[in-house]
Amino acid sequence: MKSYITVILIFFPGVIFAQIFNQNEIKRAKEQAKAVTIIRDNWGVPHIYGKTDAAVVFGLMYTQCEDNFKGIERNYLYQLGRQTEADGNSKLYTDVQLQLIADSTEAIKDYKASAPWFKKLMDAFADGINYYLYRHPEVKPQVFKHFEPWYALMFTDGSVAATETGGIYPNETGLFYNGAGEKLGALSSKSSPIYDMVNERETGSNGFAIAPSKSASGHALLYINPHVPFYFRSEVELVSDEGLHAYGAVTWGQFFIYQGFNQHCGWMHTSSYADVGDLYAEKMSKKNGQWYYEYNGSLKPVIIRNLVLNIKNGDKLEQKTITGYYTHHGPVLASRNGKWLALKANNRSYNALLESWLITKANNLVEYKKAMDLVSNASNNTVYADDKGNIVFWYGNYIPRRDPKFDWSLPVDGSTSATEWQGIHALKDIITDINPATGWIQNCNSTPYTASGASSPDKNNYPVYMAPDGENYRAITAIRLLKDANHITLDSLIATGYNHYLAAFDDLLPPLFTAYNNAPDSVKQSLREPVELLQQWDKYSAANSVASTLAIEWGTAMMKNLPPPQTDQQSTFITQRVKKLAQMDGGHQLELLTAVLKNLQSRFGTWKMPWGDINRYQRPADGITFDDKLSSIPVGATGSGFGQLPSFQSRTMNTQKRYGYSGNSFVAAVEFGPRIKAKSIITGGQSFDAGSKNFTDQAQGFIDGKFKDVLFYKSDVLKHAQKTYHPGD
Q1: pTM
Q2: Which of 95, 123, 138, 344 is the most buried (most CB within 10 A)?
Q3: Interacting residues of 660 by C-beta distance below 8 A, sequence separation 6+
């Protein structure tokens, strides 16, 4: 493909680190700062009060910078496709993907055309960050000298998997834009190493809603339990005189509460597998140096846009320009089997950001649905509850209308208008579960057709592309726990959410035991004690359990034998895939158990290691360097892949022990009575300063499921205030 490199002598200290501010901006920010009061409670949670919504947004962004400016900058380096400016060539094709998918010029147009009231929020977003940088010249950004208000329109969804690529990985884009495209996509999808990669998309998040008929108080309850990389979001409260009063989790760099509640209703987003983006296989030809693609029997010229990337190389930036290709379907991200693959999706839009904001101010179900009627959120399901006793589940939000006779999980023929989208489904058309007779709703990133037991939506009423996903073990556990539960309290709801049962071993262990019974006496003798431990095990992970260690380490080894899924949708059929995996040759299963025993013996001098002795929580001062010699806390939980409702993903980090890095983050349980009652916990603590008392003050509660009381009302906040100030004080 066409590309060229120009070396530009840009030296970082003078250009990259110098922040740029004009006097009008500084004056405006100072006035805004006076209108904002921040109260940090004893847990370090910022409660932000202002006369206007814009003032609160200004204060929110300032407090985010205080806590984790690095996280804000990293998110926008990703969203704007500018990671190479900090990380060099290693992020080149991730940046290429993002620049192909989201054009900043369109975001700028949206900002200029935005409603005046909404433009004020975006201005406040940028002003809050820039004022922090102005007041803290000691903070040295990696790249951004100045944040622009339109940046907010490049990051409109707070999900950990917010960008839809149609299943195309960055290195597949790299293969195409490094020359494979000129060969008309000779790369085969079956032989490509891309498909040997582990799918790193987060597979967690649980949302539960409980109707008044099932709660002890007679009020609706909501359980908010996202599974994301640790420290991915912060906990905040936002209060303005313009009707804003919301509490919950904010993704670094965004100005809306992504998962949380206000004084009347609450929302939990889980990642959706509804088909919201499609790959179009384009039939290509080249004439006189120009690329064309076939469409309805004629040839259309490929659209070209130059992508400019600045790549860090030592103390300089090298500029690389890559020719990006587009059809009317969207950007070309890769090629397979002789055809270019163009992505059609809705990764960013003005309405997506607007919807994210409006739901935070909805005071009832009618207003919440009005916000969702924008149908612009492309990656989330929503579990909802309110103070009128309503509980609702929406599977997805933005869903294109298509001809159901095509298999939309795979690339479709781009050469015919028969595969074009036919508009967007209205909210009333998508899968909805409202006030089910069973009195409960669960979604654990699994099929919506089991969301409320016997009251679940009927799959025959919807096209396959609306919910192409299968079942997982977390959903099975959640259904078992909720269907017979009554008189549910906040504490019992939290206990449900922290249930440690590993349902996958209901399917994995019996074949192992059968293989053991059929094994030669020599094998039985060597494995007798560990197999007996597993036979006696109750399948609950626990810190003091050796059986937990054996099961999880062996189960992890087994999971590595799962064939890689060919589509995102296929990856969601967890129970089916594991049951098939359990049919593996019994001798091989026993070999894997033997290998686990040897590995534990080698690492620790004995295989009889309680799970909590090797599975630890530690928060390094620098965020990345784990150390077996430093203090850490035993953890009885494990990852959610085996069906455990809470998630604590762990692995060795150049260490002998395993340390958590992803899973439960901000978690909350809310009761919607006349007065909000809620409890919450966050990974470790609110502060990113290792010297702060709020660095790990929530760690033990996070591990044990012992939540703190949410301070939702100002009178309670004032009783627990540790610091009150204006931005810039």
Answers
A1: 0.94
A2: 95
A3: 230, 615, 616, 617, 618, 635, 648, 649, 650
